[in-house]
Write a structure and sequence with these properties.
It is built from 16 helices and no strands. It has helices at residues 3-14, 40-49, 52-56, 75-92, 97-106, 115-125, 132-143, 154-161, 172-195, 206-212, 216-231, 241-259, 268-284, 291-300, 302-311, 315-326. Helix 4 (75-92) runs antiparallel to helix 5 (97-106), helix 7 packs antiparallel against helix 8 and helix 14 (291-300) packs across helix 15. The radius of gyration is 21 Å and the shape is flat. It starts with a helix and ends in an 8-residue tail after the last helix.
């Protein structure tokens, strides 16, 4: 018996009847020989962690654009926090932790530079709109490995796609990622906003804190515990009514005092204008696109190729490209 088969046997013995067993996966778009060591979901974890799009997350904005300080979240640290929260919930419900981890690690691979400000720009420009969850699936299906894609399992792809938007993942593991994403970003954005002096702990309504807790760790622990207790034996991943209401109220508080705060978001207009101008430049000068995007240009059109290129940029790289295109360089004799 291989190591993979031993793992699959443990899944059958130990996981909940509601769990998605790796041996029951609906498979990959391109059939592959199975690994003797890793289940399909474990292989997907490795493929995501080793891909270029995952590495770029460390240089992409979470909420605050280019903050001064070492401790503000990036898209990478957000992804890691989502993954840890999601795995804890999966373990508490005896669901498949590997599937949960793979979907969590991949959920934001398609996110734009400059956070949701960049996403809004591309959505306004691209015919048919742009959504980072759909782009994340495009990254793993089309853009990685020079157009070959990562060929991930069906359940992982669905968990990535359904972490936001109107669709719901078929697996409970995918539904965990959707809730873990919200728990992570609301709470770490509070932490960053307090660090940046945008809000203070006493600004959070007491009625919310009395339900969820008064500190970062108390809130996360309470929310995770509530999901595990409320979901146990139901065949779904849910929150209790009181916790769901409190978290929604906390999210509304964050939108009012942080996500739309002119101090916190004062530079977003500049970032959005920069991305618009870059998009217009590459649309008018498609030969300037890197070679790997020329194939997309030929197959799917200039707009799609430009969108893929810009959405994959890190914040720093977008600024560098803007400077190279629009800012005059100093002249010198060589």
């Amino acid at each position: 018996m291989t190591v993979r088969e031993q793992t699959q046997a443990r899944e059958r013995e130990q996981l909940s009847p509601y769990a998605c067993l790796s041996e029951k996966s609906r498979g990959r778009a391109r059939e592959e020989e199975q690994c003797p060591l890793r289940t399909c979901f474990q292989r997907d974890i490795d493929r995501i962690v080793h891909c270029k799009a995952f590495r770029r997350l460390m240089h992409k904005t979470q909420v605050f654009l280019q903050p001064e300080g070492d401790h503000y979240r990036t898209r990478m640290t957000h992804t890691l926090e989502v993954t840890r929260i999601a795995r804890t919930i999966a373990r508490g419900l005896r669901l498949n932790e590997d599937l949960t981890e793979a979907a969590a690690l991949g959920h934001d691979l398609g996110h734009t530079p400059f956070g949701h400000a960049g996403e809004r720009v591309l959505s306004a420009i691209l015919p048919g709109g742009f959504a980072h969850n759909e782009q994340s699936v495009r990254v793993v299906d089309v853009l990685e490995k020079d157009g070959e894609g990562l060929n991930l399992s069906y359940e992982v792809r669905r968990g990535i796609l359904c972490h936001t938007g109107p669709d719901t993942a078929e697996t409970l593991e995918g539904r965990i990622v959707r809730l873990a994403d919200k728990i992570a970003y609301i709470n770490h954005d509070i932490d960053d906003a307090i660090r940046g002096g945008i809000i203070y702990p006493m600004d959070i309504p007491v009625s919310i804190s009395q339900v969820l807790g008064f500190t970062h760790s108390e809130r996360i622990n309470a929310l995770v515990t509530d999901i595990i207790q409320s979901s146990h034996g139901t065949g779904d991943v849910v929150q209790s009514p009181s916790f769901r209401t409190a978290m929604n109220e906390l999210r509304e508080f964050m939108f009012e005092y942080v996500y739309r705060n002119p101090v916190a978001k004062g530079e977003e207009g500049k970032a959005q204008d920069m991305l618009r101008r870059l998009f217009d430049y590459y649309r008018s000068n498609p030969d300037a696109l890197p070679g790997e995007y020329q194939q997309i240009r030929a197959a799917e059109g200039v707009d799609r190729a430009v969108c893929d290129y810009i959405s994959g940029m890190t914040d720093k790289y977008a600024v560098e490209q803007f400077s190279a295109v629009f800012i005059p360089r100093s002249w010198s004799i060589k």
